[in-house]
Amino acid sequence: MVALLTVSCTERGTLVVKNKLSNVKLESISFGDFAVYGSLLPGETSEELVIKEFEDAFPFRNQLEFYMTSGSNTVYLKTAETFELDYDQDLVIEINDSTVVINPALE
Q1: 29 in a domain, yes or no?
Q2: What is the model's pTM?
Q3: Are 39 and 74 in contact (CB under 8 A)?
Q4: 2, part of any domain
Q5: Taking the mean position of all CA atoms in its chain, how far away is CA 104?
Q6: I need a labelling partner for 27 at 20 to 30 A (CA). Which of 15, 37, 53, 97 fits?
Q7: What is the pLDDT of residues 30-50, one digit of tens each?
Q8: Which regions of the chain does DSSP assign to beta strands (E)?
Q9: Does residue 34 belong to any structural domain of this protein?
Q10: Are the C-beta atoms of residues 16 and 58 closer than 8 Å to each other?
């Protein structure tokens, strides 16, 4: 008797977000369905988010979404750029003064 066993292996990709904006806090940061980090103060870097999925689920293509807070003002934004995370990839997204963002409320 011969038994065939197929095993689907999970793969991993990692994501890190850096807040390089001065005087601005990033909150509720997400990459598609993945919550990246709760809150990043200016100059902070998120912990590494490890995404483990089956190989055929990769690549993930998403905009980074977050709330930006400065003083008492908060606005929901998305990056204009769509980022791609593939398996065995370490993706670092830096939000800085030249990052183009979209306010979905104004679209």
Answers
A1: yes
A2: 0.86
A3: no
A4: no
A5: 17
A6: 53
A7: 999 999 888 999 999 999 999
A8: 10-19, 25-31, 34-40, 49-54, 60-62, 64-70, 73-79, 83-85, 90-95, 101-102
A9: yes
A10: no
Contact 15, 91 (CB under 8 A): yes
Asked, for residue 84, whether it belongs to a domain, the answer is: yes
Structure tokens, 40? 């990043």
Instruction: With a cut of 90, say whether residue 16 has pLDDT above it.
Output: yes
3-state secondary structure of 45: strand
- What total of structural domains would you count in the chain? 1
- Give the pair of three-digit tokens for residue 93: 């997204």
Domain that holds residue 76: 10-106
Distances (CA, A) of 16 to 6, 84, 104, 106: 33, 13, 23, 28
Question: Average pLDDT for residues 54-63, to the nearest whole number?
Answer: 92
| Tokens found for residue 62 | 């998403």
Burial of 88 (0-12, 13-18, 19+ CB in 10 A): exposed
